[in-house]
Amino acid sequence: MTELVEHGQLFIGGELTDPLGEDVIEVISPHTEEVIGRVPHASRQDVDRAVAVARRAFDEGPWPRAALEQRIEVVSRIKDGIAARHEEIARVISSQNGSPYSWSVLAQALGAMMVWDAAIRVARDHPYEERRDGVLGPILVRREPVGVVAAVVPWNVPQFVAAAKLAPALLAGCTVVLKPSPESPLDAYLLAGIARDAGLPEGVLSVLPADREVSEYLVGHPGIDKVSFTGSVAAGKRVMEVAARHLTRVTLELGGKSAAVVLPDADVATAVAGIVPAAWMNNGQACVAQTRILVPRTRYDAYADAFAQAAGALKVGDPLDPATQVGPLVARRQQQRNLDYIRIGQEEGAKVLTGGGRPGGLERGWYVEPTLFGDVHNAMRIAREEIFGPVICLLPYGDEQEAVEIANDSDYGLSGSVWTADVEHGIDIARQVRTGTYSVNTFSLDMLGPFGGYKNSGLGREFGPEGFGEYLEHKMIHLPAGA
Question: Which pLDDT band, with edges at 50, 70 and 90, does 15 fall under?
């Protein structure tokens, strides 16, 4: 049995502080269905307190006024602290959300460390002031921190997403109120301790675990200058609506229904080996997962057999077992959601090629078998709606133009890939697909480039200079002639 982890205080402005409310969040293991942790549930009064200290730290404190190298020194210590404790972080996250431990080590913990490191590189090279020749005379363009940031992170990749928001915000000179998901608050306490030990000044960071109601209060708070949110499309629309009351700047990273396009000249074994981990990554609980696999109709049977065999061979089980490739879903509601979509897919006429229910021998835990549907057409709900689990669709296409049309026929536009023997031709396909991130003969997410979505997949960008710029305001200063 996993040892119960209990935190009785909230991390506000760098200090552990008694909560003003009495509600408690219980963290449930998706593997055992037992309580593995308890943390305070932040109240609205706690939000007021955290925003107030963040506001004071930004308006009066040293952090926004520190030299860039001073901020880089502190953030570098945070990065190093994550690296030193990456195995502990990975275990905690796997215990909370069911991520396979091997994936948690690489993506949840070390991946977060890479985000911090990339942000440092971007911040060091960013142009904070530049002189230009204006129409009426010389001008100075400055980039200054946006202010107090509300960073709302999901349960599926909590440290990675927290890093994507915290690293650029802190390096830009902002102060931050971090709101972890109620399903995965325990790793946020580890991060808070690392940040405190790294020497982050008073008031710069608070961590408030809370539900949707308190989150809405946070993003609508008049003391917040910017909201950075990752989550569902419905929640993102609500965040934008609430933030608009105060014209609060918003960055939204939302859902996806990404297409992996396999061209006729692709090697079957290579394509399958590359796409399977990109489709079933993190138990399918990834916004960038390649959940629609498009294959040539002329080679459909070969691909159906190969993908079904590969998916059926994935090892399902205890997320803390290093051999596990697919763990449980984060909550009972997510398990039921996936089982409902499996039923819907069959009712729509799609064929289950492998999986299709709960795995045998796992009576406890919120497990769903790695499931592949065949005979799917793009009008089906299973091809259009984000299922967020290990349920993947195989779609045949006629010619290349139809493949691109199917890939683009989606309310989403977050990720995608193409698999081909001709890389240059793959790049040409990438130019035609309306999505924010694309890969040719691979699947990756580079932290030095812009990440974000078209259409319902979001607004704004994370990572790279583009993502860093989301935490900066632009100021123009007119200068006299000859200055």
Answer: very high
Residue 314 DSSP code: S
Question: 253, 369, 386, 470: which one is catalytic?
Answer: 253
Q: Look at phi and psi of residue 349 and say left if phi exceeds 0, alpha if psi is from -120 to 50, else beta.
A: left
384 membership: H or E segment, kind and range: helix 381-384
Query: Does residue 60 carry a catalytic annotation?
Result: no
φ and ψ at residue 422, rounded to 5 degrees: -120, 100
Long-range contacts (CB closer than 8 Å, 24 or more residues apart) made by 59-63? 61/175, 61/201, 61/202, 61/203, 61/204, 62/201, 63/170, 63/173, 63/175, 63/200, 63/201, 63/203, 63/204
Read off the pLDDT band of 2 (50, 70, 90). low
Domain ranges of the chain: 5-254+457-477, 259-446
**Does an H or E element contain 53, and which?**
helix 44-60
CATH of 259-446, one of 3.40.1110.10, 3.40.309.10, 3.40.50.720, 3.20.20.30: 3.40.309.10
Angstrom distances, CA of residue 1 to CA of 39, 94, 207: 19, 14, 28
Predicted confidence band of residue 482 (pLDDT cuts 50, 70, 90): confident
- Does the pLDDT of residue 197 top 60, yes or no? yes
pLDDT given for residue 483 in this prediction: 81
Q: Is residue 41 classed as helix, strand or coil in its secondary structure?
A: coil
Tens of pLDDT along 352-394? 999 999 999 998 999 999 999 999 999 999 999 999 999 999 9
Give the β-pairing of 454-455 and 412-413. Answer: antiparallel
Q: How many CA atoms lie within 13 A of 477 on its CB side?
A: 10
Burial 108-117 (b: 16+ CB within 10 A, else e): bbbbbbbbbb
Average pLDDT score, the chain: 97
Work out the burial of residue 56: count CB atoms within 10 Å of its CB; fewer than 13 is exposed, 13-18 middle, 19 or more buried.
middle
* 5-254+457-477, CATH topology level: Aldehyde Dehydrogenase; Chain A, domain 1 (3.40.605)
Q: Does 292 have pLDDT greater than 80?
A: yes
pLDDT in tens, 95-153: 999 999 999 999 999 999 999 999 999 999 999 999 999 999 999 999 999 999 999 99
